[in-house]
């Protein structure tokens, strides 16, 4: 049995062999009063999911975790934690990937290696009135395998790293990098997070498609807004997108 991960004191680890969904378990614990920093980690998920309820294939060997947070401030600001989490994942992935392997962030919540998805982030929250009660940050990272039939071409860290990466090492690295960035966000606001994410933004300045529930927009990814919105310059003018799926034109 591998040695248990060693996390900074800010975390309270809940380690599971198998679970339906780490996000569902973290949400249950949050509703029961689990403190900020409770981190649910499982070696496999039997009902993992991504954004919009899509299935997230979750075999053993990859990293699956969900973190309970209780941020102050309005829910709109808490949504910035998706970008904080991406930076945490990016720091971990970058520390193991082969040097010079291009790593980018695909709006709003994916981490790409060599243009292929290696990780994703899922936020779920519950509010009481205008105040946020809790927020769960779910993270999935392909360490040793990637689904061959994913909506976006996928890869795994084993294919892009010089040495094998254990789940324990990946968890420890993410925990450190995320703690660094969430502390920066708490102390300095979204500005530094926005700039670091924007510096590795996939497709920035290029033509993209943004698929919304009732329409598909085409335009140039002009910038990342002050609160993490996608600023899209279309033929009809600028659109501010707060949620949607980004694709390159002609891609499925």
Write the layout of secondary structure elements.
Layout: E1 12-19, H1 22-31, E2 38-45, E3 63-69, H2 75-78, H3 81-96, E4 103-106, E5 110-113, E6 116-128, E7 131-141, H4 157-160, H5 167-188, H6 190-198, E8 207-211, E9 216-224, E10 230-234, E11 237-241, E12 245-247
Parallel strand pairs: 1-2
Antiparallel strand pairs: 2-3, 3-7, 4-5, 5-6, 6-7, 8-9, 8-12, 9-10, 10-11
Helix pairs in contact: 3-5, 3-6, 5-6
Question: Residue ranges: pLDDT <50 for 5 or more in a row?
Answer: none
Q: How many H/I helices?
A: 6
Shape by Cα distribution:
globular
Total beta strands: 12
Which percent band covers the strand fraction? 25-35%
Straight-line distance between termini = 41 Å
* Series of H and E elements: EHEEHHEEEEHHHEEEEE
Please describe the biggest sheet, giving its number of strands, its sense, and whether it closes into a barrel. 7 strands, mixed
Mean pLDDT: 92
**Percentage of residues in helical conformation:** 25-40%
Structural class: alpha+beta
Question: What keywords describe this structure?
Answer:
252 residues, alpha+beta, 5-stranded antiparallel β-sheet, 33% strand
What does this structure look like?
By secondary structure, the protein is an alpha+beta fold. Helix content is 26%, strand content 33%. It is built from six helices and twelve strands. It has helices spanning 22-31, 75-78, 81-96, 157-160, 167-188, 190-198; strands at 12-19, 38-45, 63-69, 103-106, 110-113, 116-128, 131-141, 207-211, 216-224, 230-234, 237-241, 245-247. The strands form two sheets. The protein has a seven-stranded mixed β-sheet with strand order 1-2-3-7-6-5-4, with helices on both faces. Strands 11-10-9-8-12 form a five-stranded antiparallel β-sheet, with no helix packed on it. Strand 9 and strand 10 form a beta hairpin. The protein starts with 11 loop residues before the first strand and ends in a 5-residue tail after the last strand. The model has no long low-confidence stretch (mean pLDDT 92).
């Amino acid at each position: 049995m591998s040695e248990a991960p060693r996390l900074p004191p800010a975390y309270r680890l809940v380690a599971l062999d198998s679970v339906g969904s780490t996000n569902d378990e973290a949400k249950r614990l949050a509703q029961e009063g689990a403190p900020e920093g409770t981190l649910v980690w499982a070696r496999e998920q039997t009902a993992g999911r991504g954004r919009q309820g899509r299935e997230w294939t979750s075999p053993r060997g990859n990293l699956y975790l969900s973190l309970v947070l209780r941020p102050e401030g309005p829910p709109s600001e808490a949504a910035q934690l998706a970008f904080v989490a991406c930076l945490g994942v990016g720091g971990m992935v970058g520390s193991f990937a082969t040097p010079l392997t291009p790593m980018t962030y695909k709006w709003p919540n994916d981490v790409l290696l060599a243009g292929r998805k290696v990780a994703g982030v899922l936020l779920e929250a519950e509010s009481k009135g205008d105040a946020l009660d809790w927020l769960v940050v779910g993270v999935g990272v392909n360490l040793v395998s990637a689904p061959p039939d994913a909506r976006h071409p996928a890869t795994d860290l084993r294919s892009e790293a010089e040495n094998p990466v254990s789940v324990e090492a990946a968890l420890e690295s993410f925990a450190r990098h995320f703690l660094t960035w969430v502390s920066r966000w708490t102390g300095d606001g979204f500005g530094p997070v926005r700039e670091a994410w924007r510096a590795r933004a996939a497709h920035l300045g290029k033509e993209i498609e943004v698929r919304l529930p009732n329409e598909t927009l085409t335009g140039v990814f002009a910038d990342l807004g002050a609160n993490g919105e996608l600023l899209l310059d279309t033929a009809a003018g600028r659109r501010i997108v707060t949620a949607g799926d980004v694709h390159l034109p002609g891609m499925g």
